[in-house]
Amino acid sequence: MAKPSAPSRERIVAGAADMISRRGLNATSIRELAKHAKAPLGSTYHYFPEGKGQLATEAVRYAGGAVARILRTELEAGPVAGVRAFLALWRGIVVESDFRAGCPVLAVSVEEPPADEIPPALAAAAEAFESWERLLAEALRKHGADPGRAPGLAALIVASVEGAIAMCRAKRSMQPLDQVAQQLEELIAGALDRPA
C-alpha cells in the first residue's frame, strides 16, 4: 500500500494561518500548528527548520497576500466593490468558524512582542496592512478621491474592518461589521463625489 504523500508546504502555512486566526500566536505551539494543518511535526520542521517563528511569518504573509489578491481583483470595479469584497471575505471567515476565527494578521499584531525585538511575523503583519492600504488608496485616487485624502481613508477602511472583526467575535454578532460596512460605503461615496 502506498504511503500518503507528505502535506504540502502551502497546506501547512494555510493551516497555521487559520490556527493563528483562532488562538493567536503566543497561545499556539508549533506542535499545535502542525496538528491543525494535519501535518506530521517532522514535515513541519522540514519545511520550517527555524521553527514556530518562521512558520508564523509565512502564515501571516500567506494571509496578507491572499487578501491583497482579492482586493487587487475586486478594486478593478472601484473602491466600493473592493471594500464589499473585503467585508465579504471576513464575514465568511467569522460566520463559517462560528465566531472562532478572525484575521491572523490582526492576531499577530495585537500580541506583545519580546522586549527589544520586532519578530518577523509582526513585521510581516505591518507589511500586509501597508499592502492593503496601498491598494485601497490607489483605487480611491484612480476613482476620483482627493490624492491627499486617499491614504488616510484607506487606513481608516482597514482599521475599521479589522476592528469590526474583533468586535463581531466578542459580541458573537455580525452587527459591528454591518454597521461599519454601511458607514464605509457612505464615506467612500462622499470621497468620490458620486453615489455608491
Give the helix/strand layout.
Blueprint: H1 9-23, H2 30-36, H3 41-47, H4 52-74, H5 79-96, H6 104-109, H7 120-142, H8 150-171, H9 175-192
Helix pairs in contact: 1-2, 1-4, 4-5, 4-7, 5-8, 5-9, 7-8, 8-9
Total count of helical runs of at least 4 residues: 9
Range of helix content = over 70%
| Beta strands, count | 0
Label the structural class. mainly alpha
Roughly what is the average pLDDT, rounded to an integer? 92
Along the chain, the helix and strand elements come as HHHHHHHHH
Profile the largest sheet. none
Distance between the termini: 59 Å
Describe what is shown at a glance.
The protein has 196 residues and is mainly α. The chain contains 9 helices and no strands.
Give your account of this protein's structure.
With 196 residues, this protein is an all-alpha fold. It has nine helices and no strands. The chain has helices at residues 9-23, 30-36, 41-47, 52-74, 79-96, 104-109, 120-142, 150-171, 175-192. α5 (79-96) packs parallel to α8. 37% of the residues are buried. The mean pLDDT is 92.
Which terms would index this structure?
196 residues; mainly alpha
